[in-house]
Automatic annotation (TrEMBL):
One of its GO terms (biological process) is cell division. This is Probable peptidoglycan glycosyltransferase FtsW. One of its GO terms (molecular function) is lipid-linked peptidoglycan transporter activity. It is a multi-pass membrane protein. Peptidoglycan polymerase that is essential for cell division. Its EC number is 2.4.99.28.
Length: 420
């Protein structure tokens, strides 16, 4: 009877996973791997010093995908409520602050930003993992503060201070794109946390006040903050064809790639813009190569797949009765949606270029690992939400099976094992 109960429990748990998200995630990762190989062949041979084999980025991304699949599986089966534990939260908070601060002593500079740790032949970007740390922290804090969430001094200000501190440490690297993403994720989670309009209005006024207070600092350091390179990105965005060889070079070549693709594309591997014309074709501008080679169908697949994950995550957040799980789903969905919009908007000229990778598609280990962990957590929340609903609806369980079911339910619901 005990083994029957375990079998029943496992079958119901396996049935509770959202396999539609898993399938789309796997498809995006392998589609990205193919496009990374296609877009990076020339870049690896001609642009790297010393030159690398044509499949250099492809082989490295394969390793990234394997490690990310392992991380996704772990996040999908690990009871997500254990992240509410005070010791776990303290570890996440201190880990984020220490790693971001250590960059100023041990970080490596790439593209004018000191944002990476070099570990052997590979690099790690702590600010990527700070995104997930912020999501877990805000979800846990606001999940527990529901009874007094509109107490401004006690329920609103402390989490906000931590969010601003993380954004500041990322911004001074300097990495304004990632700092903006972290801030927008936090803002979206705060709006969805359950605060009333009065508290949100106070928060808005506090933000305006902070901007006014730091304005003198910005003016005194305007030459460093608004550097020639950053202003050039804005000018290139506003009128890229006014300086095709400099400020508008990236965006104009992205336009050419998108335009050359047309409806059906030139064919996989047939891009001409990746032959040294379009910088970073396997990272920031990979969507332009997808458009050139696969046309609107390739771009449509990427946008629809990412949109499905975002909308599915929002749906999961509305179904989840646990405030922590609901806010986790909101934070993860907003992160993927915001990052996708910034990358696609930059490549298409809707917003200035920021150097943000396209989720699950662009080359990069830190980004893919973070997104896989996050998506695993989203599937985890969905699984336990569906399992809880099915368990409560089931009224005629055999005694032994019900006992096993209750043990698993208790782990997922309270984060600890309890005997009936």
């Amino acid at each position: 009877m005990l083994s029957d109960g375990v079998d029943y429990m496992l079958k119901n748990v396996l049935k509770s996973y959202d396999y539609s998200i898993v399938i789309v995630y796997i498809l995006l990762c392998f589609f990205g791997l193919v496009m990374i190989y296609s877009s990076s062949i020339v870049w690896a041979v001609q642009q790297l010093d010393p030159p690398r084999p044509s499949d250099y980025f492809y082989q490295r991304q394969k390793i990234h995908i394997i490690l990310s699949f392992i991380a996704f599986f772990f996040a999908a089966i690990f009871p997500y409520k254990l992240f509410q534990n005070k010791k776990v939260l303290a570890f996440i908070m201190l880990g984020s602050l220490i790693s971001l601060s250590a960059l100023f002593l041990f970080g490596q500079v790439y593209n004018n930003a000191q944002s990476w740790f070099q570990v052997g032949a590979r690099s790690i970007q702590p600010s990527e993992f700070a995104k997930l740390g912020i999501i877990i922290y805000l979800a846990a804090v606001y999940g527990k503060k529901q009874s007094y969430i509109n107490d401004f001094n006690k329920g609103v200000v402390p989490p906000l201070l931590y969010l601003l501190l993380v954004c500041f440490l990322v911004m001074v690297q300097p990495d304004f794109g990632t700092a903006a993403i972290i801030f927008m994720i936090g803002a979206f989670m705060i709006i969805c946390s359950g605060m009333n309009i009065k508290s949100l209005a106070k928060l808005f006024l506090l933000g305006v006040t902070l901007i006014l207070l730091i304005s003198p600092f910005i003016l005194m350091n305007k030459d460093e903050i608004f550097s020639e390179e950053r202003l050039g990105r804005v000018e290139g965005f506003l009128d890229p064809f006014s300086d095709v060889q400099d400020d508008g070079y990236h965006l104009v070549n992205s336009y050419f790639a998108i335009g050359l693709g047309g409806l059906t594309g030139k064919g996989l591997g047939e891009s001409t813009q990746k032959l040294g014309f379009l910088p970073e074709p396997h990272t920031d501008f990979i969507i332009a190569i997808i458009s050139e080679e696969l046309g609107i169908f390739g771009v449509g697949f990427v946008i629809l797949s990412l949109g499905f994950i975002v909308l599915r995550g929002i749906r999961i957040s509305t179904k989840c009765k646990d405030p922590f799980g609901s806010l986790l789903a909101i934070g993860i969905s907003s992160m993927i949606g915001i990052q996708s919009f910034i990358n696609l908007g930059g490549a298409s000229g809707l917003i200035p270029i920021t150097g943000v990778p396209l989720p699950f598609i662009s080359y990069g280990g830190s980004s893919l690992l973070l997104l896989s962990l996050s998506l695993g957590l989203l599937v985890n929340v969905s699984c336990f939400t569906n399992y809880e609903r099915r368990y409560k609806e089931k009224k005629d369980l055999p005694a032994a099976e019900e006992g096993q079911n209750q043990k698993f339910y208790t782990i997922s619901g309270n984060g600890r094992m309890m005997n009936r």
